[in-house]
Amino acid sequence: MGLLLHSGDENSVIFTNADALLNLGKEHSLWYLLFATACCGIELMQTGASRFDVDRFGMIPRSTPRQADLLIVAGTITYKMASRVKRLYEQMPEPKWVLSMGSCANSGGPFCKYSYSVLRGIDKVIPVDVYVPGCPPRPEALIEGVFKLREKIRNERVLRKETAEKKQKQSPKIKNGF
Amino acid sequence: MDFEAITKALQARWPEITSPPVEAGDRFIIVPAEKAHEVLAFLKEGPEFQFDSLMCLSGADNGKELWVVYHLHSFKLAHRLTVKVVLPREKPECDSVLDLWGGSDFFEREAYDLYGISFRNHPDLRRLLNPPDWEGWPMRKDYKFPTEYRGIPTAREDQYFNEQVEAANKARQDKVNAKTW
User: Fold this and answer.
1) Chain pair A-B, CB pairs under 8 angstroms
2) CB contact under 8 A, B165 and A175
3) Residue A17: how many other CB atoms lie within 10 Å
């Protein structure tokens, strides 16, 4: 699709389907929420800074969930923090995606065996699209995760019947108080 | 003043103060809980002590009883002292030193949060780190880890993970039962 842009005459017509067009926009403007709770946040900052520069993929950090498309959970989430993560996720407008960055967010990481307060993976609270392993993952790994997410977005079908896969994306059920 | 001189000066007034020998680290004095506030006030106000800084207030659990440990420092006279208060496990209560050192506010709330030590006359004794509806005192040796919090289970679905956690919990429980800390 990218190759087709700027390739024809001024009055040329490009044929595509609506899904491809919408997904083109979405995957190239993944604005992510600045949300860092531990050392993964340092790598996230590195990824956003000039050396790795995720701006070139259209990823701009937003400091409010209302403008964000992507929630990168970078760091350890405790039970106390879990309700806040869920609220941030719910404040984000659709369409939205979640990238779980690092061992802590994936499964509790170094705290998973022996801790009273750390949430064993954020997938207990919010649905996750991509898991990036590492402790913490290097910026290359995070960018690879983002590319996996873009691949997923590219294959999403917006204007058709919901697939079973999409239905699975429902939030896990949590009791009142959250 | 060095440790010996301070201890002697205190023991002249409160003979029940002890200073057990230590194998490593700083020496400390043990003060009975009901005298603790009085002794600490004396250490702060006394012209030969002038402990104007509470460097740290910590809670501790040695398996038998709970401790409150005060690390004091004097800027004026450049000496320091470690004071321990031993509290019974069943009803750990101690006087707040908030009226002496303002900085003890969060220290005492932390000790309350993690060890369940209640400080009398503290104006706002709430949990500091854990959520307000948390149950139990996490840093005590006999603390039981929760199985769920507000509907979030603490175990994961995969078998390997649960086996590992079970083994770790068992090892921990064995250690508590054998009292080998």
Assistant:
1) 44
2) no
3) 11
Query: What residue in B sits closest to A107 (Cα-Cα)?
Result: B156
pLDDT at position A175: 44
| B157/A161 Cα distance (integer angstroms) | 31
By C-alpha distance, which of B31, B61, B33 is closest to B43? B31
Integer Cα distance of A152 and B125 in angstroms:
50
User: How far is residue B108's CA from residue B88's CA, in Å, rounded to a whole number?
Assistant: 17
Q: Is the pLDDT of residue B104 over 70?
A: yes
Phi-psi region of B63 (alpha: psi -120 to 50; beta: other; left: phi over 0): left
- Give contacts of B 122-141 with A, CB under 8 A: 130-131, 138
State if pTM tops 0.90.
Answer: no
One-letter amino acid at A99 equals L
Question: Percent of chain B, pLDDT > 70?
Answer: 98
**C-alpha pair distances (Å), B32 with each of B8, B14, B68, B118:** 16, 10, 11, 16
CB A113 within 8 A of CB A103: no
Q: How confident is the model at residue B142 (pLDDT cuts 50, 70, 90)?
A: confident
Task: Give the C-alpha distances (Å, rounded to integers) separating B47 from A109, B5, B44, B74, B81.
Answer: 52, 14, 8, 11, 15
